[in-house]
Amino acid sequence: FLKKFAFATCFLGDGAALDETARNLEAVVHIASGRHGRDALDGLARRGTPAAVRALEWANRRSGSNTMRRRCADALAEMARWRGLSTPELLDEALSDFGFDAKGELAFDLAGRGLTLKLGRDNAVEILDAEGHVLKTLPAARKTDDAEAYAQAKKTFSTLKKALATAHTSQRKRLESYLASERTWFANAWRERFLGHALMRTYARTLLWEGIDERGSSVARFIVMESDLMNADLDAVTLDSSWRIRLLHPLGMGAKEVVQWTEVFADNQLLPPFAQHARPTYARAASDTALID
Fold first, then answer.
1. pLDDT in tens, 179-192
2. Which of 145, 198, 210, 293 is 20 to 30 Å from the Cα of 234, by its Cα?
3. Contact at 8 Å (CB) between 183 and 88?
């Protein structure tokens, strides 16, 4: 029964069911057996939807089992291969916008009351009433509210906040890994991925980027201010479609440039999700070089 249940839940369940299954994959293995954990993974892999990809990525990142992480990674790689993508490209495509529009806003119905949810710093959710005033929490239920509709809306809001928190943790770690691996995006793909996506635009505005030309030479270093690209002197940068874009690693910066960008970030109150331009770097000692030689 557990085998059929694990597979069916992953193959037929909705997004919420897939997220819950991902969080409980290790429990399935512990309570039942590794075989049933494999059944759940197989169901997710066969499902192949963005929600299934996110569930596998979550389990791959959070599982304490090396075997489970390896199986999740293998399943993601196989799903990517089917689509002619790399695993990072697959994960890019699977990221949900959770219904937020290009402005990072989402209309929310609280038992007949119209509210607006807005993505703030670190993709935290702000609640705005009909007049645009920021509320600390969802308004309390009124006597005239439908109790069931209010309870459902409150549950939906809670689920959304948890999903956004999970996405934020995942994206922060992935982006930091891309800093080390020097992953690049073609300029138009970068614009769509980071400036055209409600969640990723938050990261685009708090990180330092570098444009490189076809020869691999650095041609521009910039931040995103609203929708404009600006260099360290706050002059506009025009994105060339032939460029590839990557996160700028501090090893590629001189000391003066680090100081200049640090001042730009401080003056504009930009708080990156992880240490980037101010990241500690270490020069190789002469003795280390001699050992390598």
1. 999 999 999 999 99
2. 198
3. yes
